[in-house]
Structures are given as structure tokens and as C-alpha cells.
Task: inverse folding
């Protein structure tokens, strides 16, 4: 690894660390490092930027003001952007390569962008557009997560790359959209809309990244930069300027098919969407000598994934209610092998597609994996059109209706109290801080609700009725079902405070739930009967919280549901907090692994029981930092030393305070 690469990698480490520290400081989340430590890291970053001549996107050393545009102006590209010739035949790609060395890379599925840097700074960014004319998106490009704002090369540099949004960021962004009809279909659609925003702040929020795939030209006062006739050298040059370059393999005719297979085997783990591969001659002069057709250059060729199809029969359609009220159809068919895996299900998305495919139980259908990943129905060979659209929601049994919006028909549940719409309340109930039922993730809860296993909280304690059916579900087996049922049974023994956290009383978190439970000595009915004045007498319970608690329990239907689930439990009250111990009034921070205590939560519970307090970050108010690695150079240890706060091991804590 070159010294320059090491420095750039260190810069990439420093920027998010400093960003998190600044956010914690200015947004009131508690400091995660001292000013001294922050300044030292900031100075290190600034020095590295001066040494490399590179300033990466998001660097705190640069503040960029983004202007909202009324429209995106258009501009012609310096040279036309042509499409590549395509093939799905591996043998054809091997023949095309011949005796040449090639660079085989991902064909990323985003939005192509052309960047121009002058005098080391980003001067212009254009979308591909129609290949001749693109839209100017310079302000938006400056918000790309990984794009260098300044580079060390001071001539004119023109490069092309793909603006992309990772699958992970796509899922996060889509999860925040409550209206199912407004969700983005795939990362490419989201990226295209994000890059072409009039407001750069919106682009910035979408976490767009730029992956370079071609250096068009590099000119300075001495003329065109010499890359020793190698496209790989161009990639190395771009990396040294701080750009992320598309992953590639150096290959030849003897290895090309194996290299294609290697890429194909990693489609599922590639963080960015890809619709194939690109093979580029490494020899620049040879590629240029071949010229171009009217539509494509001859120095590169695209390889498109060959969709493997299989014929099977539709067994049934599973109707899956969602939190938005939509009931989504999922086709379940006889197992088939596609791209090396067994496939039995494919989303049909909506009623319009059900009708277009003319589905019916028993129909012979053709299925495939789009881009070798997502199972889809390609064709219905029978087209019976006999599938019955359910008139009752499978989660709650209430009426459904078909609605049409933007020429798309969807099936919705008409019940506002449908448990599928209340999924977040079930997630909270099962969470670690509440009833701590391991194995009931949000995804699993959604499946159980969709099948009608769960409608109220108390139904969780009767999942054993469906054990045989659950064992047949995807992702489950006998062992996992037994573990789940054991976790449910274990949750019956709990504290009232955990139960109060679980049922979703507005404003009631762990601390307030403990205070309330202690006040009423674990008596739930005494809490229900309490008025606002009595509640306000409890430590840290104010006017708003007291009113919320009274209002919450005044709903008779809700209270009935709560009493039903409480009848399934064996709740205990809260042990009184000691006030005359060596720990009383002290504030601790716990970090690192523990040896005697099972985990940090167990140690935290003991400290709080003894009248102490545990916080997440070391500040001037901290009395002790507990860390078994007392000599480490962790940020917490450094901060504690700077503030002259004692760093003690778990063993020392036990000796002093237990």
C-alpha cells in the first residue's frame, strides 16, 4: 500500500469520527470526546489534507453552502457518451478479448455522471442525459458522500463514474416512507431522483456515492498526462486523487470465464446494484485504434447477466398485510433451482400485476431472478385468471377493498386498528428493554401477524398453538421454534417496570417506569387508579407525563387488552434503591468487556440499585470509568486521563463498592 493511500484511508477514518463528535456536542447528545482530543484529530486531518492536496467530501475543514436551484441547466458534453455493445455469452466475451489483457469490472446500476476538476477543485458535474447533452448538477455532486472536493492534481481532469445508493441506505430511506405506494422500487430510481434534485440538501440526505469507472482526460501545461498506455494506470491515478474506483479484475482469455463466475457469485454481497459487468482493454492505444460504431466504442463491451428461468406451478398466493394497510400478494410455487439456490416465493406487488399475469392456483408459471437476485414471475403459461382476491384481512378478519391510484390497483385493510398497522407496538413490547423476547424480530412479527397468529399482546403467549405451522415457515425449524417458545415462556417472569415500558405509555422510558413501579410497589391496579396529582408526586414525573399516563389508562378497550396480557405474566415490583451505600450519588461509565458480571447491563443494574448512575460518555461529572483494559488508548481512557478521572478495573470496582 502506497504512503499516499495510507494517508487517504486515514482521512476517511477521521472524517466520520469528527462528524459524530461534532454532532454529539452541538446536538446535545453528550460529548463523546474532549475538546483537546477533537482538536488533535482535526489538526491531524488538516495536516493530511495539506500533505496529499486532497479534501474529501464531508471534511469538517470545509464548509460548503448549497444553493437551491429553480431548474437544472443543460450543457453539451465535450465528447459524446456512447453506450457499450452488449452480450450475454461468456464465450463471445472471451473471443472478443483475444490475446489482450482486460479489466473486468462491475457494471453499476445508478446514474452516470461526468465530473470536471480544474486547478484541483470540482468545477462542473453533468448527468449523462441523452449522451450528447446533460444536466448541470455541480451543487448536488458536492454533497456526494465520498466525492473529493479538492484533489492534488492541478490540471484539467475529466472523469466518468456512476452515482449510486447502496442497498443498505436504500432500505433505510424506504423504511421512513409510510405510504407504500410512494416507496421507491429500487436503488437506481431513488438515485436518479436524488441526483437531479433542485435542492442539494435533499441530495445530501440520500447518501449518494460516486464510483469512478473511466478517466476521460488529464491535461496540464505540459499537455496530456502519460499513463504508459494502461487503463489500469488510470485507475491507480484516480485512486491516488482520493476517488473510489469501481472494483475490477485484471484478466485474459484463459481466465475470463472464471473471473465472470467470481463476480456472479458475489452479486448478493455487492453493496451496490449491478446489472452486469464491463470488459475494457487495458491497452489504451489498441482500444482507440479499433474506433467506434455510430452507437458504441469498440474498446469495451458490456456483459449482461443471463436470467436463468424455470417452469413451476403456483400453489397459492399469500396475502401479507403491512403497517400501511396494504395487503401485498406473494406467489408461492413448487420449489425450483435458480442461480444455485432453491426458490419457492416471489412478490407480485399489487392487484394490477395479479390481473396482468391472470394468475390462478395451479397455473404453470415461468420464474426467474431479476439481476440474479430477486425472484420474479416472468410469464403465466396457463393464464387462468381464477385467483380469488380476499375480502377479509388475514391479520384482523375485517373487510378489505381494492383501491386505484395512479392507474395501480392495490388491496387494503379498512380496519384502522388492524394489528398489522400496529407492528411498532409489538416490536416495542418484545424489545430488549421491555419484555426481552429473543427471536421475535420485526420481520418475524410481521409474518406472524400476517398469518393471524398474533392480534393482541396476549396472543404472543399462545404461539405454541401454531408451532407445527411455524416450523414449516421459511427461516424456521424445530430448534428455532423451541428456542422462541422458551424465550416467550421466560418473559412471563418480569418486573412491572419492564411491562410498563412494553405497553407503550407515552413518555415512559426505563427510568420513569422504574420510578413509577417503585412508587406503587409493583401494584398495577394502584397505578391505574392514580390521578394526576399522585403521579406528579413521583420523582421526574411532570404535568405532561402524568396527564399522558391517566389518559392512556382511561381507554377501556386498551385497558382490557393490557389486563389480558398481564394475566399471562408473573410480574414483580421494583427493589428499593439503596441510599446509604458507597455507590450512592456516584456517576460511572462502563466500557469494554467484563469478566465477573454477565454484561454491562447487569453491572449497570447493580450500580443503579445501589443508588449510583451510569452514563454513556466520560465528562467532568463522571466519578469513575470502569474498563478492564486500564492502559488502553481508547477515546474514553484518553478523556478520563485528561479530566483526571480514575480508571478502575472490574475487579477494583468489586473490591471498593461491593
Result:
Amino acid at each position: 500500500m502506497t504512503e499516499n493511500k495510507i494517508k487517504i484511508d486515514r482521512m476517511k477514518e477521521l472524517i466520520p469520527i469528527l462528524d459524530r463528535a461534532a454532532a454529539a456536542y452541538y446536538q446535545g447528545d453528550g460529548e463523546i470526546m474532549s475538546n483537546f482530543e477533537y482538536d488533535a484529530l482535526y489538526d491531524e486531518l488538516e495536516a493530511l489534507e495539506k500533505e496529499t492536496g486532497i479534501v474529501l467530501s464531508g471534511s469538517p475543514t470545509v464548509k460548503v453552502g448549497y444553493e437551491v436551484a429553480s431548474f437544472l441547466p443543460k450543457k453539451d458534453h465535450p465528447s459524446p457518451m456512447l453506450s457499450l455493445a452488449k452480450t450475454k455469452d461468456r464465450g463471445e466475451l472471451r473471443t472478443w478479448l483475444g490475446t489482450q489483457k482486460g479489466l473486468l469490472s462491475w457494471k453499476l446500476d445508478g446514474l452516470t455522471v461526468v465530473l470536471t476538476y480544474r486547478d484541483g477543485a470540482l468545477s462542473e458535474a453533468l448527468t449523462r442525459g441523452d449522451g450528447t447533452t446533460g444536466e448541470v448538477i455541480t451543487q448536488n455532486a458536492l454533497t456526494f458522500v465520498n466525492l473529493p472536493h479538492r484533489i492534488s492534481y492541478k490540471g484539467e481532469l475529466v472523469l466518468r463514474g456512476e452515482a449510486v445508493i447502496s442497498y443498505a441506505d436504500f432500505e433505510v430511506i424506504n423504511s421512513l416512507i409510510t405510504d407504500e405506494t410512494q416507496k421507491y422500487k429500487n436503488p437506481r430510481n431513488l438515485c436518479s431522483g436524488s441526483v437531479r434534485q433542485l435542492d442539494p440538501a435533499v441530495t445530501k440526505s440520500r447518501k449518494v456515492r460516486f464510483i469512478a469507472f473511466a478517466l476521460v482526460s488529464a491535461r496540464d501545461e505540459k499537455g496530456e498526462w502519460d499513463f504508459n498506455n494502461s487503463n489500469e494506470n488510470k485507475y491507480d491515478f484516480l485512486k491516488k486523487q482520493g476517488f473510489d474506483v469501481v472494483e475490477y479484475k485484471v484478466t485474459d482469455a484463459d481466465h475470463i470465464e472464471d473471473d465472470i463466475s467470481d463476480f456472479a457469485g458475489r452479486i448478493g454481497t455487492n453493496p451496490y446494484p449491478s446489472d452486469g459487468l464491463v470488459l475494457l482493454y487495458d491497452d489504451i492505444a489498441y482500444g482507440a485504434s479499433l474506433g467506434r460504431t455510430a452507437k458504441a466504442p469498440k474498446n469495451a463491451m458490456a456483459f449482461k447477466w443471463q436470467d436463468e428461468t424455470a417452469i413451476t406451478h403456483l400453489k397459492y398466493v399469500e396475502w401479507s398485510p403491512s403497517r400501511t394497510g396494504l395487503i401485498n400478494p406473494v406467489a408461492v410455487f413448487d420449489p425450483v433451482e435458480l442461480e444455485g439456490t432453491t426458490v419457492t416465493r416471489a412478490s407480485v406487488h399489487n392487484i394490477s400485476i395479479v390481473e396482468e399475469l391472470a394468475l390462478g392456483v395451479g397455473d404453470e408459471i415461468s420464474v426467474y431472478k431479476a439481476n440474479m437476485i430477486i425472484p420474479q414471475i416472468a410469464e403465466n403459461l396457463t393464464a387462468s385468471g381464477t385467483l380469488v382476491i380476499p375480502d377479509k384481512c388475514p391479520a384482523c378478519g375485517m373487510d378489505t377493498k381494492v383501491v386505484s391510484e395512479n392507474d395501480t390497483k392495490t388491496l387494503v385493510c379498512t380496519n384502522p386498528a388492524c394489528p398489522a398497522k400496529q407492528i411498532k407496538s409489538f416490536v416495542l413490547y418484545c424489545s430488549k428493554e421491555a419484555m426481552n423476547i429473543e427471536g421475535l424480530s420485526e420481520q418475524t412479527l410481521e409474518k406472524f401477524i400476517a398469518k393471524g397468529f398474533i392480534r393482541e399482546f396476549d396472543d404472543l403467549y399462545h404461539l405454541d398453538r401454531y408451532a407445527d405451522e411455524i416450523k414449516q415457515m421459511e427461516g424456521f425449524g424445530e430448534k428455532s421454534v423451541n428456542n422462541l417458545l422458551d424465550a416467550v415462556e421466560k418473559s412471563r417472569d418480569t418486573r412491572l417496570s419492564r411491562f410498563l415500558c412494553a405497553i407503550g405509555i407515552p413518555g415512559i422510558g426505563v427510568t420513569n417506569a422504574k420510578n413509577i413501579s417503585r412508587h406503587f410497589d409493583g401494584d398495577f391496579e394502584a397505578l391505574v387508579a392514580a390521578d394526576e396529582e399522585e403521579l406528579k408526586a413521583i420523582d421526574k414525573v411532570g404535568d405532561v407525563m402524568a396527564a399522558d399516563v391517566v389518559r392512556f389508562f382511561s381507554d377501556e378497550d386498551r385497558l382490557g387488552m393490557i389486563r389480558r396480557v398481564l394475566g399471562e405474566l408473573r410480574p414483580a415490583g421494583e427493589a428499593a434503591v439503596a441510599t446509604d451505600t458507597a455507590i450512592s450519588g456516584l456517576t460511572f461509565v462502563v466500557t469494554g468487556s467484563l469478566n465477573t458480571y454477565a454484561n454491562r447491563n447487569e453491572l449497570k443494574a447493580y450500580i443503579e440499585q445501589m443508588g449510583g448512575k451510569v452514563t454513556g460518555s466520560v465528562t467532568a461529572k463522571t466519578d469513575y470509568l470502569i474498563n478492564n483494559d486500564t492502559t488502553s488508548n481508547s477515546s474514553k481512557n484518553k478523556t478520563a486521563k485528561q479530566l483526571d478521572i480514575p480508571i478502575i478495573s472490574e475487579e477494583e470496582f468489586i473490591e471498593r463498592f461491593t
In short: Residues 235 and 245 are 7 Å apart (CA to CA). The first strand starts at residue 74 and ends at 76.
